[in-house]
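Exercise 7.
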Amino acid sequence: MTQAGPTGRTPTGRAARELLGNAQELAGTARTVLDDHHRAVEAARAALAPLLDSLVGTELASIPVARLADVTEGRLRLGALEQAGYTTVGRVHAAGRYELRQIPGVGAHTADQALAAAGQIAHAVRETVAVRMDVDTADEATTTLLVALHRLVEGGPDVRRAVDAARRLTTELEPLLVTAAPARSRLRMLLAGRAGAARALAAVASVRTATEDAAARGLRTLFGQVSVDLLRGPASEAEAWVDFELRSPEYYSLLAELSGSEPDQDAAEGFVPAGIADRVREMRLDDTCLRVSLRGYQSFGARFALTQKRVVLGDEMGLGKTVQAIAALAHLAARGESHFLVVCPASVLINWRREVSARSTLRAVPVHGPERQEAFAEWRERGGVAVTTFDALHTLPDGPGSGIRPGMVVVDEAHFVKNPETRRARAVSGWTEHTERVLFLTGTPMENRVEEFRSLVRRLRPELAPLVTSTHGVAGSHAFRRAVAPAYLRRNQEDVLGELPSLVRADEWEEFSPADFEAYREAVGSGHFMRMRRAAYARPETSAKLNRLRELVAEAEANGLKVVVFSYFREVLGTVQEALGDGVFGPVSGSVPAARRQELVDSFDRADGHAVLLSQIQAGGVGLNIQAASVVILCEPQIKPTMEHQAVARAHRMGQIRTVRVHRLLAADSVDQRLLDILARKDRLFDAYARRSDLAEATPDAVDVSDGNLARRIVEEEQSRLAAEV
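Solution. The predicted structure, written as tokens, is:
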């Protein structure tokens, strides 16, 4: 018999046996991945169960037994239970049927009713409690859970990709292999009869299609690698805790899935109407080109941008608007699109470059600076994600003039182009008017700025602009979002808090402005390490770091959040204070008496709504509690990691009810980068043990990097590097 060739004939006989044998092996590999994943998930669930039981027990112990009557609509008699000391739902829930029946006046029916009602309440409570993992109070049960989760997190997005593909493949292949079985021999085909033989040949053809598709997608290799990852030995406790600190969002996302404590679906989907939500849910996001796993609300955001095509994503700061945009670009790239454009303020351009490269397989092409025309031509030729600034965009050919139609245009900090008469707005329109998919990103709540939103949406969906009126904003955020749902999606912290870690860190990389670089070169030439560290703020009028700090404070103000700004240098805080103007609290410094420091913090805490507190990191990092702040800005990296750790802990501690966002301002190709490179080479496990010890908390100098030659080494490296660039 013949193997199918260019004519597409269905293989039979030996060719069919080989095809079906290969397909059987592929299905077996897929089934193995599913089994390995199931075992890893069940191990994590087993570790999670006692923690949930403990939380549920604590909650039930505070619920009076009278609530059982509410569940049974008053049909349950509780007098005998209460007289016997069963005064809480937890006490009843922990009892057995036999135990309750021993109570005078409690019969079998009452005992069963009481236990059933307590079980209903316990089930409801279990859906609301959430396990939190605190690195400073790591108990044995939480550590066991973390080690179990580490196996799944370590595999990264490949685990989810492999499991999804394996489910689809086994569902498709296994019944086909049964139907195609007669095609393995002529005798079996004869015995199958004409109809059975026809079904077998059709199944063989479908098996061939499925196996060719699997080969094209490299599924056999993916399944094998993921099985290896899932079967690796467990991580050490210290390794698991260190990994958790580095990527806690991924652990909390997985934990939410396992515990069923994911946020309310309507809230996580921004309260968009059912018709739109259904359309978005039905779309499958292709994550082939992604390097990270998305949380549920982030996946919805990326799919919303793709299905609605021209939208504003207005999630509150810290919820990952950038990664949602990158996920949308990655999906389009996996489907064959080659060119994408990101327009953003100069202050976040380097962050976009890093994020695109770190979170996807897409190529980031910076198009700015003196060589932007050459970079643009290279992007036009080779494709990738062109990242440019508002000010550079107008110097480049626009959409039609460039000969390129990007798969998507992303505009970050889109409120910068709210005035259509400005040069930057016209430059953006030159691209967005001729692009099918456009994504505007802004953390500014549009329901507070209806006119601003109308201006933005007019460029995206002109037909919606007349439907948006000021009364929608007055009616409240949910009413506004429903009115503008086809083109606007926003989720607040409380909407998705169940999936968020309690601490979100972001390194804000900036490139020196020409004046910044001049000041930095002078500092390097002087050989003064501390001067090098604060050189980024030496020219306030053109400081890239200071400009980014202003933007972060402005976004926090728009969201009514309090901010604490830390710097090692009193001089830098003075520059920040002058840049932010009146109404700033502090600075808290070593020269301020302790009582006065507390007065400043108390005044900051009592301030209604947004406020900013400035503090030297040495003075504010120990002793003061700043729970009112949910945004922390570090003006520069610290030589001693524990100094940063303790400063952040002033805001991120018991009593803090909001997620804390930490923004560390860093200058690329500078002392900041050299310092982080050196610190990163130190033993992370030693640091993990040391920072959790009582000794470390009391005497941070004992465990911090204290290389006496550190400053001299960095100065010499920078002097050599800058000399070589001349």
